[in-house]
C-alpha cells in the first residue's frame, strides 16, 4: 500500500466504491454456500475491539464542555520526542460514530477486510450506560449491520480523568476518579436485563453455539462490587438463567486476564485458575499486548520484541488454563495523545508510557500470521482472534485508515484471514 497524504475525501470515496463491489461479491458467495446449500462457515472469527468515545455523550459534555469528543485529543497531539509521528490524522475525517451512515462505512470497511465482529467497550455507571450512542444509534441503526456481528465487552473499570492526564496522574491525590467500576448486585441485575433486551435479541449479536458472548474486563472490580467470589458466581448464574429464559441455550462468558497494569485503577487477578472455575467462564480473552508485555525501552520499544513476548504469553496461557483462549494481536501503542501536551514526556506511568515503534502494516501482518498458526495448533472448535483495536486513536492502536498508511492494516487482516 503506497502512502497517501491527500486527506480523507478521495480515500473515503474510493473505499466506498470498493466496498460496494466487495459486498456484491461477498453476497454472491454467501448465497452460493456449499454443495448442500448451507452457508460457508469461516474457520476463524476475527473480532476487533471498538472504543466508542468519538461521539457526543452528555456526561462527557458535563466534564469537558458542549460537543466534546475524544477527537479533540487526537487533533491536539504533538510529537513528544525525535521521530515521533503525531498527530495521527484519520483518512475519513473526524466523524460522528453515532451517525448510522458513518457506521455503515465502518461496517463495510471491516467486512470487506475479514473483520467479523466489533467487540464494543461498554460501560455501566450509576445504573445506566455510558458511551452507548455509538452502538445503539450508530451500529444498530446502520442499514448494512447484517454484514457483521457485534458483542459487549463490559469495561467495568473505574473511569478516571485522562482526557488529558497531567504528569503525575495516578499518584495518590492527583488521581481524579469520575465513575466507580464496582457495582452492586441490584445494579448488575438491572444491567443484565438491559443487555439481554437491548443487545442479545438483536439478530446481529454475536453468538457462540447459539449463546450470546459477554466479556468482563476486570474480575476483581466485579467481585468487589458484589461482595466476593461466591456472590459474583451467583450473579453470573442468575445472568445465565435470564439469558436462557430469553430463548437462548445459554450465555457464553469470556474473562479478560492480564499480568501488567496499564490504568492506575487496573486490578490484576491473583488466583485466575480458581476464579475461572468458580465463576464458570467459557473462554479467556486478552485486550491488548501491553497487558502482558512491559514496554521496557523508553520512549520506544520495537514492535517485534513486543510481538515475540506476546506469542510466548499465548503459549503460557494454554498451558496454564484449560479453557479456549482468544489470542490478541495489537496494531501498536502510543498513549501520548492522552497526556497534557505541554508537560514533559517522561516514563512516569500511564499515559506517560513508552510507545511501540516499527508497527508497520507488514509487521502487523506477521503478528496476524503468528496468531493464525497458534490457533491452528489448538483443538478448539471456535478459533477466535481479537484485534486491538478498531479505533483506539489516542492509544495509538487503530485499524481505521489514517493519512499515512491508508488501508494498510486492514489489508493485512484480509491477506491473512480473508480466505480462511
Structure description:
Strands 1, 2, 3, 4, 7, 8, 9, 10, 12 and 14 form a 10-stranded mixed sheet that branches. A two-stranded antiparallel ribbon has the order 5-6. A two-stranded parallel ribbon has the order 11-13. The protein has 12 helices and 16 strands. Strand 9, helix 9 and strand 10 form a beta-alpha-beta unit. With 420 residues, it is an alpha/beta fold. It is globular, with a radius of gyration of 20 Å. Helix 4 crosses helix 5, helix 7 packs across helix 8 and helix 10 runs parallel beside helix 11. The N terminus is likely disordered. 36% of the residues lie in helices and 15% in strands.
User: Uncertain runs with pLDDT below 50, 5 residues or more?
Assistant: 1-36
Derived from helix and strand composition plus strand pairing, the structural class reads alpha/beta
Average pLDDT, rounded to a whole number, is 89
Helix-strand pattern: HEHHHEEHEEEHEEHHEHEEHEEHEEEH
Termini gap: 22 Å
The best one-word shape is: globular
Tell me the helix content. 25-40%
How many H/I helices? Answer: 12
Taking all Cα atoms into account, the compactness measure Rg is 20 Å
Strand content: 15-25%
User: What's the assembly state of these chains?
Assistant: single chain
Major sheet: 10 strands, mixed
The overall strand count is: 16
Amino acid at each position: 500500500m503506497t502512502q497517501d497524504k491527500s486527506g480523507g475525501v478521495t480515500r473515503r470515496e474510493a473505499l466506498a466504491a470498493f466496498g460496494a463491489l466487495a459486498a456484491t461479491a461477498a453476497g454472491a458467495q454467501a448465497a452460493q454456500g456449499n454443495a448442500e446449500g448451507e452457508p460457508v462457515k469461516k474457520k476463524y472469527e476475527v473480532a476487533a475491539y471498538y472504543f466508542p468515545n468519538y461521539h457526543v455523550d452528555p456526561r462527557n459534555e458535563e466534564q469537558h464542555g458542549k460537543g466534546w469528543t475524544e477527537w479533540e485529543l487526537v487533533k491536539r497531539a504533538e510529537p513528544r520526542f525525535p521521530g515521533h509521528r503525531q498527530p495521527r490524522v484519520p483518512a475519513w475525517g473526524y466523524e460522528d460514530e453515532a451517525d448510522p451512515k458513518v457506521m455503515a462505512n465502518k461496517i463495510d470497511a471491516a467486512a470487506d477486510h475479514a473483520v467479523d465482529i466489533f467487540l464494543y467497550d461498554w460501560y455501566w455507571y450509576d445504573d445506566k450506560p455510558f458511551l452507548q450512542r455509538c452502538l445503539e444509534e450508530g451500529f444498530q441503526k446502520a442499514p448494512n449491520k447484517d454484514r457483521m456481528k457485534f458483542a459487549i465487552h463490559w469495561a467495568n473499570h473505574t473511569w478516571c480523568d485522562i482526557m488529558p492526564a497531567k504528569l503525575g496522574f495516578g499518584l495518590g491525590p492527583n488521581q481524579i476518579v469520575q465513575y466507580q467500576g464496582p457495582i452492586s448486585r441490584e445494579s448488575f441485575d438491572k444491567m443484565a436485563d438491559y443487555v439481554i433486551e437491548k443487545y442479545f435479541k438483536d439478530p446481529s449479536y454475536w453468538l457462540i453455539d447459539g449463546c450470546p458472548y459477554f466479556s468482563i474486563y476486570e474480575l476483581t472490580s466485579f467481585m468487589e462490587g458484589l461482595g466476593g467470589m461466591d456472590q459474583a458466581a451467583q450473579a453470573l448464574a442468575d445472568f445465565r438463567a435470564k439469558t436462557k429464559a430469553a430463548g437462548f441455550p445459554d450465555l457464553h462468558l469470556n474473562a479478560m486476564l492480564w499480568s501488567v497494569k496499564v490504568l492506575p485503577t487496573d486490578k490484576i487477578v491473583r488466583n485466575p485458575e480458581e476464579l475461572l472455575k468458580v465463576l464458570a467462564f467459557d473462554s479467556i480473552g486478552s485486550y491488548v499486548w501491553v497487558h502482558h508485555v512491559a514496554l521496557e525501552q523508553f520512549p520506544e520499544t520495537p514492535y517485534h520484541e513486543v510481538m515475540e513476548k506476546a506469542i510466548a504469553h499465548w503459549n503460557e496461557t494454554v498451558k496454564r488454563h484449560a479453557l479456549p483462549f482468544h489470542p490478541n494481536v495489537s496494531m501498536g501503542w502510543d498513549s501520548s495523545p492522552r497526556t497534557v501536551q505541554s508537560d514533559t514526556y517522561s516514563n512516569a506511568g500511564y499515559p506517560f508510557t513508552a510507545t511501540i515503534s516499527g508497527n508497520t502494516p507488514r509487521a502487523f501482518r506477521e503478528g496476524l500470521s503468528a496468531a493464525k498458526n497458534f490457533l491452528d495448533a489448538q483443538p478448539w472448535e471456535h478459533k477466535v482472534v481479537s484485534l486491538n483495536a478498531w479505533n483506539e486513536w489516542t492509544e495509538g492502536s487503530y485499524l481505521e485508515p489514517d493519512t499515512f498508511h491508508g488501508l494498510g492494516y486492514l489489508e493485512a487482516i484480509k491477506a491473512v484471514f480473508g480466505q480462511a
